[in-house]
Design a protein that fits this description.
Elements (H helix, E strand, L loop, with lengths): L14 H23 L2 E2 L3 H11 L11 E3 L6 E4 L8 H11 L15 H9 L2 H5 L2 E4 L3 H9 L2 E7 L9 E5 L4 E2 H7 L2 E4 L5 E5 H4 L13 E8 L30
Antiparallel strand pairs: 1-7, 2-3, 4-10, 5-6, 5-10, 6-8, 8-9
Length: 254
C-alpha cells in the first residue's frame, strides 16, 4: 500500500531531464533547416516530360551567338554584323509558341531588344489573360514550380533600354534546395551561353554586380505542359523551313 507521503518514482521529470529536453529542442530548431535545405526538390512526371521536351530543343546548337537566325527554328543563316548578337528572347518565344503559349514575339515586336519588351509585356493585363502569373516566392519555390511541369520564365530588363535584357526558361531538374537557394533556379537558355541546367547565377551573370542583391522577375503560365496532347511539335525537332527576310533580324538580346 502506498502512503500519502510516499514518493512515486518515475512520475514527472527531473530538473536534469527537463534541461536535456530543452537542449534537444534547441538543437532540433538549429539543425532542421539545414536538413530541409539538403533535401532534393523532386521532379514530377509532367516535370520529366517537360525536361525531355526542353532537351529536344537542341539549344546548344541553335540560336547561336554571333549569327543571324530564323527566330522560330534557331537555324543559323549567316554571320551577324555584330559578333555579340544573341537570341535569348527568340528562343523563349519559339519554345512557348510550339506549345500554344504566347509571349511577345515577332511580328508584334522585332527581335532586337525583345527581352526588354517581353519584360514589359509580362507586367500587363494582356499577359494575365494569356495565363501568366507572377511568382514572388523563394528560389526553391520557383524551381519547384518548373519541376511540377509548368512553363516558368526568368526575365530581367536592362535599365538602359538601348541595351539588351535577358530571358530564360526555368529548367526542370532534381536539385538540392541548398544549391537553388545559393545559385538561383536552373535554366535553359540561349544567349552569351547556350545550354541547359545552368544556374540563374551563371546564366544572368552579365546583368548584376552582386548576385545577393540581384532579382530577376519570374512568371509561370497556368497551363501545365501537355505532352503531345495539344501541340503536334512537342517532342520533335523543329522543321527547317524556307526563311523570309524578316526571320533573319539580328537579336542583340542577352
Amino acid at each position: 500500500m502506498i502512503g500519502r507521503h510516499t514518493k512515486v518514482r518515475g512520475k514527472g521529470m527531473s530538473r536534469s531531464g527537463r534541461r536535456a529536453l530543452c537542449v534537444l529542442c534547441i538543437w532540433a530548431l538549429i539543425i532542421m533547416p539545414e536538413v530541409s535545405l539538403s533535401q532534393t526538390i523532386p521532379l514530377s512526371e509532367r516535370g520529366r516530360a517537360l525536361k525531355k521536351h526542353y532537351d529536344q530543343a537542341n539549344v546548344e546548337n541553335l540560336w547561336l551567338k554571333g549569327y543571324q537566325v530564323d527566330w522560330e527554328t534557331g537555324q543559323s543563316l549567316k554571320k551577324a554584323h555584330h559578333p555579340k548578337t544573341t537570341h535569348c528572347s527568340a528562343f523563349v518565344a519559339a519554345l512557348l509558341k510550339r506549345n500554344g503559349l504566347y509571349i511577345l514575339r515577332p511580328p508584334e515586336h522585332m527581335t532586337k531588344n525583345l527581352a526588354n519588351a517581353q519584360y514589359d509585356y509580362l507586367e500587363t493585363e494582356k499577359a494575365k489573360e494569356d495565363g501568366w502569373v507572377k511568382l514572388n516566392g523563394m528560389y526553391q519555390d520557383i524551381q519547384r514550380k518548373a519541376n511540377e511541369g509548368y512553363f516558368v520564365v526568368a526575365v530581367v530588363k536592362n535599365k538602359n533600354v538601348e541595351r539588351s535584357g535577358h530571358i530564360a526558361l526555368v529548367y526542370p531538374m532534381e536539385v538540392r534546395e541548398q544549391e537553388v537557394k545559393e545559385n538561383g533556379p536552373y535554366v535553359i537558355q540561349a544567349g552569351h551561353l547556350n545550354g541547359k541546367g545552368i544556374s540563374l547565377k551563371k546564366g544572368f551573370e552579365k546583368h548584376y554586380k552582386d548576385f545577393s542583391k540581384f532579382r530577376a522577375a519570374f512568371y509561370y503560365n497556368s497551363r501545365k505542359y501537355e505532352d503531345q496532347e495539344h501541340c503536334p511539335n512537342n517532342g520533335v525537332q523543329p522543321i527547317l523551313r524556307p526563311v523570309t527576310p524578316s526571320a533573319g533580324q539580328e537579336g542583340l538580346d542577352d
